[in-house]
Amino acid sequence: MSVEAYLPSSPITTGLVALVAGLFSFWLLRRMRYNYPPRPGIALPLLGHAYSPMKTVVVNKIDEALEVLVKKSTDFANRLITPSVEMFTDGCRDIAFSNYSPTWKLHRKLSSKALRYYMQGPALEHRVHAALETALAEMDGHADSPFDPVEHINFIVGNILTGLCFGGSHVYKSPGFRKLEKFYKKVIVDFIGKKYHDEKKTFKRDELRHLVDHLILARTEAEVSEGDALVALTDAHIIQTIADIFFAGVDTSRMTLRFALLHMAAYPDIQAIAQEEIDRVVGRDRLPGLSDRPDLAYTEAVLHESMRIATVAPTGVWHETLCDTSIGSYKIPKGTPVMINHWALHHDPDAWDEVEKFKPERYLDEHGKLGPKPKSWLPFGAGKRVCLGEFVAKPELHLIFASLLQRYRWSPEAGRIVDISPEKSPLSNTPKAQKLRMERRI
Fold it and tell me: pTM score, two decimals?
């Protein structure tokens, strides 16, 4: 029997057959052109993975991650822009989520310059100490009784970031600070935007008060060297820069500190070693300072290990390819979302000895000093899109953590075991709410 017996002879049928054949050919040629990485599940001919939300490349190994972030950082420098991201960033005028462009490069350059200048002085240490003194006095009332320190950590971090950006400080546990945590978009307009314009009116280039002043100065100085390039860099970009620093700094820092305290309560022997180091280097009569940091290597290693184990931002901010490129032997087309799986990098048994064990010593050299950063430790990312606030967050977290260990010994609530496993989501790992005991040491 001939094939024609099974096929009605009509133009519509002929057209459908031609369409299917054409689509199959296109699919086959595209697969040959782009040697995609292997995918979970089964890809259906023609449909492929169209039943999934989107085609995304997930990078789980450090060599490929460094290829994306460093070696070919420009190829992967775009961001995955969604409607919610565009809304939240006022049309992608921030640094963290906007695409790679001449405006972005200038924006990043000026913001980095302002942060470097600001960090050269004692402002950060003063802000941290001021916030700590207020919070520690409040926390002393909970000594020897179980409580969850989440509100106090939120206050410390929020107070520091507010002072760093604008000067001044929050009222402790103020309604405004609670609103900040709940209504990001409203705060960008009503709080950050208003504060920025208020500070801009009183800006004096010979009397720099806070980070906003340094950002305004950096933009003013660039008007001479950059000329017309600055036309695209508006007040909205600076407001979004402050929002990047503010929200990223608040969220990641408070989660990191909460996990670090849970780890100390879970590992009392490690806590005791860190506290012995703090007592030896700093004593008990003053708060730890930035100048103590090189001599508090074990304490910093504890913090680094907590950041590895917890990985509060397991997927970071997603990238998107701005051209056809490759990862290893796999070809990746322009416009492909690429996710760096920081959780996988931090828990890769091929990269870490005793990967699930809490081992601060893995970051120390034979002399007990901080050694070179392990290649697979990337909580802040790397390359062109490395976290803008990394060199603020590291000393800030160290000062706060060392101060909390100096003053209190942390332990589980009586009869309970500390739960250090996170509440997981694709975007964040959150510590589980639980009470701890604090014993005053000084």
Answer: 0.83
Instruction: Compute the distance between CA of residue 152 and CA of residue 436 in angstroms, rounded to an integer.
Output: 13
Residue 139 vs residues 14, 199, 439: alpha-carbon distances, Å: 78, 33, 11
**Average pLDDT value for residue range 95-103:** 91
Domain-embedded: residue 140: yes
Q: Give the bridge partners for 364, in sequence order.
A: 370
Taking each helix axis from N to C end, the angle separating 150-166 and 194-201, rounded to the nearest 10 degrees, works out to 40
Q: Tokens 């900040």 map to which residue?
A: 180
pLDDT of residue 231: 59
CATH of the domain at 419: 1.10.630.10
* Strand partners of residue 370: 364
DSSP assignment, residue 71? I
The CA distance from 401 to 252, in Å, is 14
Whether 342 is in a domain gets the answer yes
Mean pLDDT of the region 133-155: 91
The separation between the first and the last C-alpha atoms of the chain, rounded to the nearest angstrom, is 96
For residue 330, give the H/E element and its range: strand 330-332
